[in-house]
Fold each of these.
Amino acid sequence: MKITGAKKGLRGALMMPGDKSISHRAVILAALADGKTEISGFLRGQDCLHTLKIFKMLGVEYRDKKDKLLIKGRGLKGLRKPDGQMDVGNSGTAFRLLAGVLAGQDFTAKLTGDESIQKRPMGRVIEPLHRMGAEFNGDKAPLVIVNNKNTKQLVGIAYESPLASAQVKSAILLAGLYARGETSVTEPALSRDHTERMFKTFGVRLRTAALPSGKHKVILPNGKHKLKGGLKIKIPGDFSAAAFFIVAALIVPGSKLLLKNVGVNPTRIGLLDVLKKMGAKIIWQNKKMLSGEPVADLQIVHSPLKAVEIGGELLLRMIDEAPIFAVAAALAKGRTVVKNAEELRVKESDRIKTVVEMLKGFGVSAAETSDGFVIDGNPELQIAAPLKINSHYDHRIAMSAAVFGLLNQKETTITDDKCIETSFPGFAALLQKAAR
Ligand SMILES: O=C(O)C1=C[C@@H](OP(=O)(O)O)[C@@H](O)[C@H](O)C1
Ligand SMILES: C=C(OP(=O)(O)O)C(=O)O
């Protein structure tokens, strides 16, 4: 992809693609429901299309109309043994959530994915699922989930997760649908809660509790679970996609941009809290609920920014936004410090390394630390040189670099930008439209 500097600010009103996390969950729960589900706003990015294809291999029929996806659920016990291995592509969410679903079946299945997935840690789901009674061959992708007709039913566990991870929590809750007894997950802080919200939408009883220690617990009670059919699920615009346009409008002078129908689930919008502290002008409009998730229109006005220090729970709520946040920090006045971000090292790329490399490529002073990075921001930064930035096949690095490229008066080339298709098809065209 080639980006040239924005002549004017970003203007107009845009709709973001459907939320990636919620799209995966909508397909999974619809496939396990008793009856049909109509899904609108489904993200047709490669990650979610892999999940859909996998359920087709598991015997789930669907109809893909232009604006709707109709899924014929087979009930919790209705999945069929797939013919061949199932490929999640680049998607950690698909891999880990499916491991939970497949742990509860009575057939053996093999999950795999691309080069990046084959390097990502899967012990974090294998270990708790094994404690529930699931058997695996392997500790990473490709991974075999071993079952047969005589496999014993899973048993619920009370899992104290060392990580605040929605993928771990969701894998356990999905396996819990097949388990005897109560299943609970306690996490050090509340990770994104889309699974809990959607379980409730599909009629599954769940209890959640914020513990005095600051930990968070979700309990799936003992009982025979059933997901109801006949629902119409509406998926909000993806906040993680919107983040690129939010930061673009903040850093390009003259911008005033409206993003409509964006998901604003509190477990996802840490970036808005941080940007506010940095001095960003962002106005919320039309807040409402959509299938159990809050959405709003966000108006973003170009603003001078100042540096911040972040870590802990706030970082958890903006973990996928770290790369684009770094772009905002590069243009902010002062030194920005990001701590407690070790998880960034095991995403699609080592995002501590690749973020710092990307910033340096634009002439920014930035350095890695063991658990994050330090950025010396410069609001006066002038870039006017042809540049080549390596995406490392990571969609969020590629899109962050494209946004930064709006400030380069000469051409910025981003390598291997096809990875953007995993989460944001049509990104380049939309950015061009807004920045024209
Ligand atoms: O559950 C999800 O949909 C996701 C959870 C997060 O990962 P972890 O659970 O590994 O923190 C996030 O980084 C990922 O993009 C999507
Ligand atoms: C980390 C991400 O996704 P996943 O874990 O599903 O690959 C992401 O989209 O930034």
Note: Residues 21, 93, 165-167, 170, 191-192, 319-320 surround shikimate-3-phosphate (ligand 1) (CB under 6 Å).
Amino acid sequence: MSAGGGAVVLSVEGLRAAYGRAQILFGVDLALRRGEVAALMGRNGAGKTTTLKAVMGLVPPTGGTVVFEGRDVTGWEPFRIARLGLGYVPEERRIFTDLTVFENLEVGRRPLADGQAPWTPERLFSIFPNLAEMRARRASAMSGGEQQMLTIARTLMGNPRAVLLDEPSEGLAPVIVEQMAEAVLRMKGEGIAVLLSEQNLSFASAVADRAYVIEKGAVRYEGTTAELEVRSEVREAYLTV
Ligand SMILES: Nc1ncnc2c1ncn2[C@@H]1O[C@H](COP(=O)(O)OP(=O)(O)OP(=O)(O)O)[C@@H](O)[C@H]1O
């Protein structure tokens, strides 16, 4: 599938996945271009999380292809895909609660790919200023939203070129949602391509250039988030409850 614009970093074609006998994805097509933020939208149970997991190899694809930076990684083990430079931040937080913010970041450090400026805790603190203020704090003493930011920051310590973010705004207080949006935009500013799953159109519009709307395991609509704002019939069909 051609996405137009910049070079395609991640290309997903006809992706199928199932949990046992329950088929969930029926051929998902999407592309993420270099340096863009794209939103994967859809109602609860539409298949957003399953799409991200199937891309990452956490759920084995039963059909279709996942190509990352020109390499067919379909069904590879997740750690191998991550090593190629595709980061993944699940909905549930993955941090060490007994470690401080700074220590959690250090634990995430990975050797970098050729020619990339490596992330350091100091560089990350400029993207996540709220984490800078609590660098010596144990993660167990942080709010859920702060832990979510730390999870993202720790993923960046692995120097990914693209990141999959599963529902980054879910369950966060409005002020933290704003900080999260700023952090996503700063990631984009650093040249990292981001594919995030999202139910909330206002968050998606704030951060994403384009949106894919998924329902019953297939993409039903693709367009800019600005277009989605005015296409009420699409929102009513696939987004509003
Ligand atoms: N481990 C699992 N075993 C069986 N079915 C599952 C499993 N995980 C998810 N499902 C089912 O797959 C479908 C898609 O779920 P998925 O989590 O991908 O949706 P989603 O769009 O991310 O929604 P949500 O916003 O609720 O996370 C749902 O019907 C869900 O019940």
Note: The longest strand covers residues 8-19.
